[in-house]
Amino acid sequence: MLAAIEAGGTKFVCAVGDHQFNIIDRTSFPTTYPEETMAKIIGFFDAYDEIEAMGIGSFGPIGINQHASNYGYITSTPKVKWRNYNFLGEMKKHYQFPIGWTTDVNAACLGEYHLGSGKDKHSCIYLTVGTGVGGGAIFNGRFIEGFGHAEMGHIILRNHSADPFQGVCPYHGNCLEGLASGPAIEKRVGVKAEELDKNHQVWEMIGHYLAQALLNYTLILRPERIILGGGVMNQSKVLTCVKKEFALMLAGYVDTPEVDEYIVLPSLGNNAGITGGLILAHQLL
Ligand code: ADP
Ligand code: ZN
Asked: Which is an annotated GO molecular function term of this record (predicted)?
């Protein structure tokens, strides 16, 4: 039996699954503070004594360098109670089985790469556009990472010519997350993104920013597929705008797959991250 945790800034999902990555049981609860959350995690997994390995995909930034002192920690998160929290270390105090540790978006990327929208490709990027913006990349089965993990949501972009908004990122102001996350949309227009009319001008701006980001990822990494998930992508106008703007900005400079094949939605839906966690666990066996 395999176990997985999707540790999100809003909620935690815990699941156990079989070796075919079918989910056998799952639970979820709001992200509060570490001690309470940890008790709920352990309460769920302690009911299963056949767990062989676990995969965790966590919100971050997190320490992923096995040789660094902060390996396994949630590090500089705006969620103060979770800052510098040794999440993996706490889990290892309770469980003897191997535990894989990566970012929430890398886990979702892994799920989509093996079983979802990336399954026929050797490389893909997964970007979530939600409360935050973050991305993971897998090339030939391996995460792209080095000194740390990627932070694809915090790249600096040019403002849209009709958008004076200075952004909501506490670190960079108008980085991608500062301009195109759900909270950035809400701050600009004064209503929640999900309540905003399809014809509002802001959707074209969001498409414009995501297209700039995808252009940068394309030029740096040349992936075979880019998968766009997260709550903001529920507004179908965004995907249409991204594809149109992307093609304009690329201006035929290099070849990419045909745009409808290249920029796609996830096919595992809400299960991408937890499925990726099960795959990460399986890789440890
Ligand atoms: P999280 O990022 O917290 O894991 P989500 O990926 O669901 O969660 O993203 C939540 C964000 O997505 C919120 O800012 C919300 O306003 C926005 N959102 C949710 N539904 C929609 C929708 N239908 N259209 C546009 N934005 C949406
Ligand atoms: Zn930023």
From this structure: metal ion binding
Verdict on whether the full-model pTM lies above 0.85: yes
183 lines ligand 1 (CB under 6 A): yes
DSSP string, 233-267: GGSHHHHHHHHHHHHHHHTTSS--S-HHHHEE--S
pLDDT in tens, 70-97: 999 999 988 899 999 999 999 999 999 9
Output the six-digit token pair for 61.
């930034």
pLDDT in tens, 228-270: 999 999 999 999 999 999 999 999 999 999 999 999 999 999 9
Sign of the CA dihedral running 58, 53, 22, 19: positive
Per DSSP, what are the bridge partners of residue 100?
Answer: 55
Using the atom order of ligand 1, give the atom closest to the CA of residue 9. 3
Asked if the 119-266 domain carries CATH number 3.40.50.300, the reply is: no
> Closest ligand 1 atom, CA of 131?
2
231 alpha carbon – ligand 1 mean position (Å): 3
Within the chain, all domains assigned CATH 3.30.420.40 are found at: 2-106+270-282, 119-266
